[in-house]
Write a structure and sequence with these properties.
Chain lengths: 357, 357, 357
């Protein structure tokens, strides 16, 4: 399954929601074709290491914990949270030098556990996508979920970078009644990030937002913006406002985070975190909103993207010569940028990215 | 799964029973490794095109219809029934020249939808296997069914071309009590068709037919004939007669059509259509007869052929040096003929047959 | 699935438990990637042949018996128990010379059906692993079972050759409370067999055995020994004794036989046969003991080994540079020995081992 796909190694990926790695659990997840063990030290700090014992390669997640130590379930080797074997019950107890499991930098931020699988020296947390709206907002204005898709992560990025699909794929709650597609979105590049933005006047605004405006049936200004941050992490804003030009102060805005982490070449962990500047203290609304969006992704987006993957089979979309539309302005730039970043990494001969295979 | 198998491209294949593509349905079926969309225009005419949008390759069958137009479910491109994109909601609405989905000639005849995946200029409907008995017979003397097999289509052709298997595989209703196997069948070639025929005297005749003869327990003349028409479409007749040499006028004859359409190298859509010259106005008998044959194929032939495929793994039977018996006279000729036709097509550099891959 | 793996062909493998091939049954099992038909002649003698008709390769096990003759279910060819076609109902009944199915030497011994897939002339029954404790013991002191694993057979051999896993993987009934791992086992080679042995003093002995000693809570001498016999057949003894140095006469000893037969490169038939020198006439205990061990293998060993296979993917463990511990002394020797035997066989150009593919 690998082989045909090269991932960007020197990059932060979300390995899990903070809530997924809970208490004493030894959490196993495959990321970029590599099995990873995630757990929390007793002080709460998350750690990550390869989920295979150095001896016979049994996933350590099958084992048990002794404090912050992980005990392999097969032959009892013990590892500390840095992946170093600290105890062998075998023979005279001597620990072979090679008895080390590769560990990975992990940063917990904004409700996500970010992992770095590349060259450890380059792991700079300042390069993590800014998702601070999730931690700055009141708790009942924030929610998360995770879905696993049977599709390459770039197809899932495409889905977010070309938001015109909402008018065709989704119901009235989150579409624009055809307003979006005719627009030529503005695409800008900011260092390695790609931004795409649509602005339009709606009458009325998108249902999801309109009901929270002063005049739900009235005219409104609207916008969508998505910031893509390599390799496949996106911050999306959608807003509506009436009689003002400050969406954030006078309007209603959703601050969504769409984070795609490859599991394999053809499957993806999709993490979603959302905040908003309205109805920030209504737990019931928050839950309802979450279920609405989760259902939309799981029953409307996911089947389409999975079937798209099944139909094209390849992970190299451009090899099929897709027709390009104005709405592809963002995702084409993103695919090219990502390809360039990967090629740059490969040309620099980053050993980490290949050593793992 | 492809790769090892080349199909005959310039040939008519049954894509579906007429009844499968009904009303407003957007019908998806994989044929020769290609996803095909079949539907009927409002005037009832069937059309076929590749089931993948030119933009992002979502199967169009996921979309909806607007009259005879198909709307892609992902970004709203609209296609007419020739596969031409006729509307884009994106940007200024300009339609890229490449926004065309390959369409295929379809002919509806005798209860089948015949499709041509090869060079369109060569699509000559006069080359479709004659199944006119199905349309000429009273409706209660005709039935159809479709079964999907997990086996290469040539194994399924072999099964029909060597009918001696019926004495070993099937129950008393459709076997010959050992009469068939000792016969040396007559194999003849007629242009590119291969015919095989067995004649024998039975005492009594095959149960299925005997009960419809004047003297069910009496002696009868019997015959089997199969006409193979490339690539894998067969017309089979089986008859019994007493005191006459005209099966069709004085005897009882079944006119069966065994049509094999490759889905992939190792799976096949098997279409069956049957007519007869007796009990032509008995709907109840017709249903019973259909269920009897469908059950025989589904529970007696299918498991054997699927297991045969599983056991040999390859799609090149001859590479395993099978022992040949007199009863293989027909299927060996058929395999050689088909191989020659495919090689001829390849040597002529037919671009269509490879462009699709 | 083959390709990457070469098996030792000139060796005895267990094809089935004696009880699996019962009465009139035509028993199908894949061994070393080859489908085998096993059945018993009316005199009770087991026979084995390739489970594919020479004509169209249908598994003969789908057919029926006529005495010791097997009739193919597809076109009625009949084979005697040597694999020779003895009857064809086709044409003039002439039997093509090539109508022979490869047959294999089978020896029934000690409750197992041993098969030889290599060069028939080298099939020497004296080279079968000695499992005579199973036939010499009273019937209520003996039991067998078979489990199918999704793992390469060498991983399963490793599991038996490194018994230190029992302290980490299994419950108190069959572990040593940490006594085993610190020991340096004695590894010896005896012709092509590899023996490994652990001796220790226990206080008390392993639960499973302790309850059958005079003083269950008292001190005891204990030992484990495993004899490995190529390719993957093992005889394991575990014993405890008090106040004597003769385990077999004065102590309690289990005589277990762990027999691994590759199904494919990544799946294994695991046959287990056990005898003991205590409680030899207690049918109820025998059943309970059997269920206890079967449950331990099925729910404790099997998931670990299957997941280990899933994690490493390859069948070449050493290519992953596993850390080696003192407890690996036996299995490393075994892997090297087996590799040498296979290479020796390949270098001798044994045609049988490749002709089959």
């Amino acid at each position: 399954m690998t082989g045909e796909v090269r991932y960007l190694m020197n990059a932060w990926y979300v390995a899990a929601l903070s809530t997924e790695v809970d208490g004493e659990v030894l959490f196993r997840r495959k990321i970029l074709d590599i099995s990873i063990l995630l757990y929390r030290k007793h002080n709460g700090e998350p750690v990550a290491m390869r989920d295979r014992c150095a001896h016979r390669f049994l996933p350590l997640s099958m084992g048990k914990r002794e404090g912050d130590i992980v005990v392999c379930h097969y032959h009892g080797l013990k590892y500390d949270y840095t992946g170093k074997c600290v105890h062998s019950p075998h023979g005279d107890g001597r620990i072979p030098k090679a008895a080390v499991v590769q560990s990975f930098p992990v940063v917990e931020r904004d409700g996500f556990l970010w992992i770095w699988l590349g060259d450890t020296e380059k792991a700079d947390p300042s390069k993590i996508l800014d998702c601070s709206m999730l931690s700055k907002s009141p708790k009942d204005a924030v929610f998360y979920f995770a879905i696993r898709n049977n599709a390459n992560y770039e197809l899932m990025t495409d889905n977010i970078m070309d938001l015109t699909h909402i008018d065709h794929l989704h119901g009235p709650l989150i579409n624009t009644n055809g307003k979006l597609s005719p627009l030529i979105p503005e695409v800008t590049e900011e260092r390695d990030d790609i931004n795409i933005r649509w602005d339009w006047k709606a009458d009325p605004a998108m249902q999801l937002l309109a009901v929270h405006l002063e005049e739900p049936e009235g005219k409104a200004d609207q916008f969508f913006s998505v910031k893509w941050h390599a390799p496949s992490n996106m911050h999306l804003q959608v807003g509506a406002v009436q009689g003002s030009d400050d969406y954030h102060k006078d309007g209603v805005v959703l601050y969504d985070h769409h984070i795609m982490t490859p599991e394999t070449a053809k499957s993806t962990h999709y993490f979603f975190g959302s905040a908003r500047n309205y109805k920030q203290y209504d737990a019931e609304y928050n839950e309802m909103h979450k279920e609405g969006l989760r259902t939309a992704f799981a029953t409307e987006d996911k089947p389409v993207i999975d079937l798209q993957q099944e139909e094209i089979e390849t992970t190299d979309l451009f090899s099929l010569n897709p027709v390009l539309l104005s709405s592809d302005a963002g995702n084409v730039r993103v695919r090219r940028k990502l390809k360039a970043l990967i090629e740059e990494e490969v040309s620099q001969g980053d050993t980490n990215s290949t050593a793992m295979k």
